[in-house]
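Notes from the 1:1 (GR / supervisor)

We went over the backlog. Supervisor wanted to see one worked example end to end before approving the batch request, so GR pasted a single chain during the call. The sequence is below; no edits were made to it. Supervisor asked that the structure be written out right there so they could see what the output format looks like.
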Amino acid sequence: MIERDYDRSAVFNYAKKWAFGRNSEYYSFNKLGGDCTNFASQCIYAGAKVMNFTPVYGWYYIDSQDRTATWTGVEFLYNFLLGNKGGAGPYAEETDIAGLEVGDIVQFGREDGTFYHTPVVVGFSRGEPLLAAHSYDVFNKPLSSYRFARLRCLHIAGVRACEGL
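Structure output shown during the call:
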């Protein structure tokens, strides 16, 4: 595996283009529980340009029927990004709000510890993250305008690719 740069400007540009629309290359999961993590994965992929095709526990999307749960599920994406210690694709570390950059993600949770929403960081205003998301489509929405009991912040620390990719 080789380390690659995570292109944060590509994440921003993708989020800006598709925050209020749907890329026809991806199925919209709005009617199947929400499209937020699917959109977050699309944004991350725009910056990583590498998927992990490990069955079940990898992170990839070929079509709506051939994908991993990590592509569309809030908890599954979290587990993949933090657990991807040596495989292909993006990997992350948990941080606080001050450690976030454009292209990172946040996840909102309930009091009981269940996490349910995955917006993408697209900017900052006076140190406050501005977010883009699907399900309830937004772009440049301040973190403080959301209501949540728990917050976790994931900084995309890097991307790994196979030699020659």
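Supervisor's comment: The chain has a mean pLDDT of 94.
Batch request approved.
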